[in-house]
Amino acid sequence: MKALEPAPKTSKAQMVGRVLLGLMLINAGVSHLTYARLPFQAQVPPWVPLNPDLVVLLSGCVEILLGLALLALYRHKAYVGIVVALFFIAIFPGNIAQYTEHRPAFGLQTDTARLVRLFFQPLLVVWALWSTGAWTALRQSFGRE
Questions:
Q1: Rounded alpha-carbon distances, angstroms, from residue 78 to 90, 101, 136
Q2: What H or E segment, with its residue span, contains residue 99?
Q3: Distance of alpha carbon 40 from alpha carbon 42, whole angstroms
Q4: 67: which residues sit within 8 A by CB, 6+ positions away?
Q5: Do residues 78 and 130 make contact, with C-beta atoms less than 8 angstroms apart?
Q6: What is the rounded average pLDDT for all residues in the chain?
Q7: Cβ atoms of residues 80 and 70 within 8 Å
Q8: What is the torsion angle, in degrees rounded to the nearest 10, for the CA atoms of residue 40, residue 42, residue 46 and residue 51?
Q9: Beta bridge pairs of residue 76
């Protein structure tokens, strides 16, 4: 296994995807800190040993930083993409908790709506890996390309 290439070549479509994902994360982070704090608290699983509001504030700050990193750290975009994908995986239990505990938030008033939402989280992981070239860089580092 060799080290990841810091800035693998990506297409214009990937660059647009990276920028859009970065802007989306910044927007989500700002909403965590302002107008959507209460709905985001519904996603904090009860087993998390921190105050739900603190979790929402901290995750909002992380989302803003990740969004800025996607926009600004072009030379290290593959590494940033991996971190963003891991972040999406790390927050997935919150989405599961919202579904299993029947917590309404963000217009998700039914279990069906909350279940459908769960299928979008893996797409965010793939989006982060694809748009940053991390998917290709990881395959190359493991000698598959």
A1: 18, 35, 9
A2: helix 77-100
A3: 5
A4: 21, 22, 23, 24, 25, 26, 27, 28, 29
A5: no
A6: 90
A7: yes
A8: 50
A9: none
Structure tokens given for 88: 């999406």
Secondary-structure percent of the chain, ordered helix, strand, coil, rounded to 5: 70, 0, 30
- Residue 74's Cβ-count burial label (10 Å; 0-12, 13-18, 19+) is middle
Q: Which residues pair with 108 in a beta bridge?
A: 105
- pTM (2 decimals)? 0.89
- Residue 1 pLDDT > 60: no
Q: What is the dihedral of CA 16, 18, 20, 21, to 10 degrees?
A: 160
Tallying the residues shown for the chain, one arrives at 145
Average pLDDT over residues 15-31: 97
